[in-house]
Structures are given as structure tokens and as C-alpha cells.
Write a structure and sequence with these properties.
- Helices cover 68% and strands 0% of the residues.
- It is mainly alpha-helical.
Length: 412
């Protein structure tokens, strides 16, 4: 399915049609409902900016890495062996069927989620299991995303502007309206960012501990072996390093990494302005490359200067205080959710978890193994010992979580 998207549709656009009106009439209009907005945006950026796929970054079809928040350049795998002319009709029919199935199943799932949440509200809060809390949280987030997303479903031709909406509001598609490959991409992206966050935050913690000579260099260089010793040293001596490791004293870059560590789809608060500046600078290049594509020219305009691909962080006044406040609010909210779920988990255990729910639940705790028994052991023996610090000292909890997640990555 994705090979057709990457190969057949791309070749159609580049080689078959001689005019923009013909391209829009025969391909783009029929396919817009069927192509997800995220993939449509990938292709528009690919054609307008002439970013060629790199062979060393080719991904499996179901797990190509994308960056939703920072909108890094995406590398698209292509199949040059397909025949676009022979498969044109079948591709359109397939996409139409796929989209219609997604629309029906997504709407049905949304209705079922609302019913589940209504029934859950009638239940005593003290009897909520970890799964109840996890599903309640997921459904509320999906319903919040569905409010603006429903506009693009109800209003005719509104899907034309959906890619531009996703540029400024990434991660705004409800999970009930995502293809399976999109969910896998999302999980892969969260795992990748969590790993980066764990390394970044744990390195910051280790440098603070080494600075005060609370751990040795050998311990710091081998977390998988000395992880528990380091955690114990941090707990006992946290008052010494509390000023450096306090969440309130961290800058926005470090707080973003903490959000990644906790598997939060982070909102920086400055993405709209950042993307507006970036795409405004690149608009002349987009228009020129669009014209070259229409006239079937193989040439593309390349602007390699750093300013055209730079993601402006806006880490200065007045943006920095606003970013820090928003990032801290997301961290505290996530810690609060994790604490509630862990208390229910300690009380009721793993009750009625399906495989995907179980994997997602463990992801938020930095645990990602395929063996359910291993995950249960790590959560019950290691994670719950860390989780008890969530309400006592959120900063200590974050530091312990970073060390715990990095030790698991290094062990794997």
C-alpha cells in the first residue's frame, strides 16, 4: 500500500500530467479523501523543497520516522518499479475504500469510547483500575482532538487545508482516525524521542552527581551495571544537587527533553510562530519548484543555507518564560497521571489489558520489551519504587526515571 503511495502516485504527478488543472482533476481530487493529511504534507514538502531520499535513512514501510513537533525534513522511500499507468484505477479505488473504512471504524470507535467514558463516570473512583485510568485519559485526549478535526470531516473540501492545519498543530489527529501504520509511526517516534530524552536528562543528572563527587566516573559510564547504585546515591544526596536538578530551574530545552522522556506529545507554545517564519522564508523556493514540476522539468531549486532549514527555538524573552510555564504544566500533568495509574496498578494489578494497551502503558514508563512477563516484572519491581517519589518530589522522580529508562536502553 505504501509502495503505491510513494512510487505510483509520485510517478503519476511527475510524468503523466501536462497541466496543473489536469493533475488536480484526475488525481488530486479523487485521492485527497483517501490520503492521510500527514502523508500528503510529506509529499508536498518533498516536491516543493526537492529533498531527495537518502539511502541510509530508508525505513521499513510501517515505521518511517517523522518529527511532528519540529517538522524535520522527511525521507520517503520510493518504489521505482511500479507502473503508474497500469495501476491508476486500482489505486484510486483502494484509497477510496481504505478511507471509507477508516471513517466508519473511527466514528464507531469514537461512539464506543464516549459510551465507555460515560459508564466509567458512574463507577466509584476508588474502584478504577489502571486500565480504566489509562483509557479515560486516552479518550479525553482523542475527544479534545476530535473537536477541530470534525470540521475537516463535515465540511466539504475542507480536507484541502488539513495539511496546512497539521503544520501548525501537529499530533492533532485522534488515534481513532489513524491508520495502523500511522499508529506504528507514532509509537516509533515516541520511542526515539524518549531515548533521546533519557540520554539528555540522565547525562545532565550524572554531570551534577560527578561534579559533587557523589559517584565515580566508572559508575557514570556504565549505567546498566551501576544503575541502582546511582539511583540510591541520588536519593540519599538529592539535597546537595536539588538546586541544579530542580525542574523550576531548568531551561526550556531541558524541559522539552523531560517531556520526551515521559512520552509526552509536547506542545512548546511557539510552534505556530516558528513554522510561519520557516515556511515564509522558503515560500519563494516552494513556488519555483512547483512551477518546475508543472512544466515537467527535472531541475529543482536548492537553498542549502542554514537559515532556510533552521528551527527557530525562540529561547529569549518574552517567549522563554511562557515556554517554560507551558512545558512545566505538561510535565506535572503527566506525572500526576502516572502516579494515579501506578497506585491503581499497585492495588488491582494488570487487569484486562490487551496487548497494544499493555505496550502503550509500559511505554510511558520507559519500558519497551515484547515479553509481557519481563514488562510486568520491571514495572512491579523497579518502576513502582521510583513512582512513589512522584508526589513527594517531582524533580527527583524525573531524575530517577531518566536513569531507569537509560539503563533499560543500554541493557537492550
Amino acid at each position: 500500500y505504501q509502495r503505491r503511495v510513494h512510487g505510483d502516485i509520485k510517478l503519476m504527478l511527475l510524468s503523466k500530467f501536462k497541466s496543473l488543472s489536469g493533475l488536480r482533476r484526475e488525481v488530486v481530487r479523487p485521492l485527497l479523501p483517501a490520503l492521510s493529511a500527514h502523508r500528503l504534507y510529506q509529499r508536498s514538502v518533498f516536491h516543493f523543497s526537492s529533498q531527495q531520499p537518502q539511502s541510509n535513512q530508508t525505513q521499513k514501510s510501517e515505521a518511517s520516522h517523522t518529527s511532528a513537533e519540529s517538522n524535520h525534513g522527511n525521507h520517503i522511500t520510493t518504489d521505482n518499479h511500479g507502473d503508474p499507468h497500469a495501476k491508476k484505477g486500482n489505486v484510486i479505488v483502494e484509497y477510496a475504500k481504505e478511507f471509507w473504512h477508516l471513517l466508519k471504524s473511527g466514528s464507531k470507535q469514537t461512539v464506543n469510547d464516549i459510551k465507555f467514558l460515560s459508564a466509567l463516570k458512574k463507577k466509584d473512583n476508588t474502584a478504577w483500575t489502571a486500565l480504566d485510568l489509562y483509557e479515560s485519559r486516552r479518550i479525553k485526549l482523542d475527544l479534545l482532538k476530535f473537536i477541530p478535526f470534525s470540521f475537516f470531516i463535515i465540511v466539504p473540501a475542507a480536507e484541502l487545508v488539513l495539511p496546512f492545519y497539521l503544520i501548525f498543530f501537529p499530533n492533532s489527529v485522534p488515534s481513532t482516525f489513524m491508520f495502523d501504520w500511522q499508529k506504528k509511526e507514532r509509537r516509533t517516534l515516541l520511542l526515539e524521542k524518549q531515548r533521546e530524552g533519557a540520554i539528555y536528562v540522565s547525562s545532565y543528572v550524572l554531570s551534577a552527581l560527578k561534579k559533587h563527587q557523589l559517584i565515580t566516573t566508572e559508575q557514570a559510564s556504565n549505567i546498566s551495571q551501576y544503575g541502582k547504585d546511582i539511583q540510591q546515591a541520588l536519593i540519599v544526596n538529592f539535597s546537595i544537587v536539588s538546586k541544579e536538578l530542580d525542574l523550576e530551574n531548568m531551561d526550556s530545552d531541558l524541559l522539552i527533553q523531560v517531556n520526551h522522556l515521559l512520552a509526552v506529545e509536547v506542545i512548546t507554545g511557539t510552534n505556530i510562530l516558528t513554522q510561519f517564519v520557516k515556511h515564509s522564508l522558503n515560500m519563494p523556493r516552494y513556488l519555483i519548484n512547483l512551477f518546475l514540476m508543472i512544466i515537467r522539468s527535472q531541475e529543482r531549486l536548492k537553498w542549502n543555507h542554514w537559515i532556510f532549514n533552521y528551527n527557530f527555538k525562540l529561547n529569549f524573552f518574552p517567549f522563554e518564560p511562557l515556554k517554560r510555564a507551558l512545558l512545566l504544566a505538561q510535565i506535572k500533568s503527566q506525572i500526576n497521571y502516572l502516579e494515579k495509574e501506578d497506585k491503581a496498578l499497585h492495588q488491582f494489578g494488570f487487569t484486562n489489558f490487551e496487548v497494544q494497551q499493555f505496550l502503550s502503558f509500559s511505554l510511558y514508563r520507559g519500558i519497551h520489551f515484547d515479553d509481557k512477563a519481563v514488562i510486568e516484572r520491571l514495572i512491579m519491581e523497579d518502576w513502582l519504587a521510583i513512582s512513589k517519589w512522584a508526589s513527594k518530589d517531582p524533580s527527583l522522580f524525573v531524575c530517577l526515571s531518566a536513569l531507569h529508562t537509560r539503563a533499560i536502553y543500554e541493557t537492550k
